[in-house]
Amino acid sequence: AAGVIQSPRHLIKEKRETATLKCYPIPRHDTVYWYQQGPGQDPQFLISFYEKMQSDKGSIPDRFSAQQFSDYHSELNMSSLELGDSALYFCASTVRGGGAGELFFGEGSRLTVL
Amino acid sequence: DQQVKQNSPSLSVQEGRISILNCDYTNSMFDYFLWYKKYPAEGPTFLISISSIKDKNEDGRFTVFLNKSAKHLSLHIVPSQPGDSAVYFCAASAVNRDDKIIFGKGTRLHILP
């Protein structure tokens, strides 16, 4: 069965560079979430999209932006990278109103900022 | 402000015994609770959930208990197996308000041979 696909799986950047992470949700899922998990920390909600519109915003820095495209894939753009941005970034998808409430997660994109 | 708390960072249980993972929450608006299991370098995988209208939900070896008055839930794994060694995240959401899911910090479960 198709799962949530994230790319790239690993990314190494220097400080002040930019990075873009991509998330391809499960087919027919209309909602995408982004989470950031730093070393030894719990996943922190960043931002979510429903039907290509931003639906909720969490602790996402102003240096980050994201969008959901017409094919429902989402991209997280990170600029002026800082060392503290090094983390595992998870994307998750679900069907809003599906009743189950479960999110299906991708395997994550590990960003290392040097 | 940690709305979902897992106070035990780690837990070791003998294979075949019962594993009990605990979770407390502070937001009374939460009405849906989930447990996720996470292996290293992988995304969390959904395990089991419970709605606030229930106090127990069972799925095979996994049972989640919800005590709304105490704002406490627990995940029981019986019997524990080696493949259960992972980090377990408790999560909560207020389904009727927004879809945001708040995670706890996780509990690392070690199943001992």
Gross geometry of chain B: globular
Sequence stretches where pLDDT stays below 50 over 5 or more residues of chain B:
none
Rounded to the nearest angstrom, the distance between the terminal CA atoms of chain A is 36 Å
User: What order do the helices and strands of chain B follow?
Assistant: EEEEEEEEEEE
Q: End-to-end span of chain B in angstroms?
A: 38 Å
Strand content of chain A: over 45%
Overall SS class of chain B: mainly beta
| Helix-residue proportion of chain B | under 10%
Query: How do the helices and strands follow one another from N- to C-terminus of chain A?
Result: EEEEEEEEEEE
Mean pLDDT of chain B: 90
Most extensive chain contact? A-B, 27 and 22 residues
Shape estimate of chain A: globular
Mean pLDDT of chain A: 88
Instruction: Characterize the biggest β-sheet of chain B.
Output: 6 strands, mixed
Helix percentage of chain A: under 10%
Task: Please compute the radius of gyration of chain B using only Cα atoms.
Answer: 13 Å
Low-confidence stretches of chain A: none
What is the count of β-strands of chain B?
Answer: 11
